[in-house]
Amino acid sequence: MLARSITARFVKTKKSILLLGPRQVGKSTLIRSLKPDRLINLMDESLYLGYAKDPARLKRELSTIHGSAVIAIDEIQRVPALLNIVQLLLDEELKLRFFLTGSSARKLKRGQANLLPGRILVEHLDPLSYWELEGKLNLEKVLQIGSLPGIYLEDAETGAALLSSYGQTYLREEIQAEALIRNLGPYARFLDAAAEASGQWINYSKMSSDSEIPKETLRRFYSLLEDTLIVFRIPPWRTTVSKRRVSQRERFVFFDLGVRNALLGIHKSPLSSIEKGRLFEQWILLQIIAFIHAYQKEWHISSFRTDTGIEVDWVLETPSSVIGLECKWGKQVSHHDFNGLRTFEKFSRKPLRKIVIYTGTSDQQF
């Protein structure tokens, strides 16, 4: 098992933790590696049914423990009421520490569970990152099949089969069922459209026309994927110091490139250079998000585009500066590649650091 960046913080803190992340990112593996005294896996149907019928059973069981203990509850969103029971147990000053995992903030909210219950830290786990893969990183492979641990570390044939199952079973069936979507047709068309549009500026009117899905339904479906941690919403960069118009369209990026490719059926075929360029840009964003989650950075991500089409791929705002990032799938970089960044510099409210990330082997300064 590859070491995960956030594990050290889990070991160091004495607080209870709610670990959020999509299915298959390695939440259960990480929690088991910490050797809890008791593990309750709510994917076990008999356990799920028992706690769903009687959530207070958890309090009765754990109140019999004398002394300190670490309790792990896997996929707690299946019985959201248990999160409130956990809070109650913590309030009673028992010597219990909880490791909780969940893959749907939506289910927890819908179950009226308290997502921020005082002494529970909320953490996020992403697919394997650049830093976690280290010497095992194969960029071409990551762009095609993503970096979910159980897929990336398998052989190519097995990984591709698992990806197909993920897209079909989880995204198309389980999430559809969770949202109580009665008409599967529009949702299925939306998933295909959303995968194709991953990383692009969203034009809801055009997408609605192309997919024959009302705009408000598209927005609801995107919120569903966001709440189930399948996509990240990237807002447009907003200016207050210029009269020049800046696009207010948002972008959505799938949490894993392999999952996105599987929805489009391109995870088994060679990718074109144009497709690699798009995916490389999204992969860089996913690494930034993983870094922010792993090291708890208070950074804000947005994307810049003027009404005339001048763009900067990603804008990263830190407490002290703004970083503009351009991503290029190529071995060479030139002065021209900084044009968008130079335009954006006129809008930035803070000192701007201009960076072009490319696939060449040397650092260069322009």
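The record above closes out task 2.4. Task 2.5 opens with a second protein, given below.
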Amino acid sequence: MKSCLIKLNQACEQLNDILKVGTTEGQVYEFCQNFMKENGLTSSWDNNCCPLVHAGKRAIHAMVRPGNNDIRRGDVFHLSFGAKLEGYATDFQRSWYVLEEGKSEAPEEVLKAFSTIVNTIEHVRTNLRPGMMGKELDVMARKIMGDAGYTYSRGCGHTVGMALHDGVVTLGPDNSTLGELPSRIIEKDYVFTLELFVDTSHGVVAVEEMVKVGENGGEFLYIPQTKLWYIK
């Protein structure tokens, strides 16, 4: 998993060379498809919509192939990418902001959303322990997000193995759809995603990291995104 995440982060670094005003979601999709082919990777989910690419508030949030929506100034640009290598899946999300003329940083609305997500992921990661139930972690995340004025409907993470959602434990609330998954006990060495998102007037801000459960918290499988990335 770690070697695959290293490759996906390399893809993000290379993306910085093509991400600009006017680049379409479809062009980013094609770049990522070519990157997977060149690096021996396969999609973690339906190849027709892997990765998911969203530019601005007008982006369509569904499991559909990215199209002609183009990056514009003042957009949040969001990438949800997952690939398989050597039989194991990965899943991660990253966020950028497209600077407006004369500006050097994103608006407060976007910065607050990003920092709240990152702080929530870090809190859950450091408090993750073997023996806990998945829903206990979700309660932690909802408290921090709620205190900042944000709500979300799904859980804050899930286990990943040879499948993207391997059905062992979900970090989510009790409900009829999830069944017993939120109440299952977390064990050492399980691998989880920790993922949260906020809808803003500039587009969705989201971050997703992968961690391995240890005795004293979750260990990031690769370098996390702790700062909002910019498209100038």
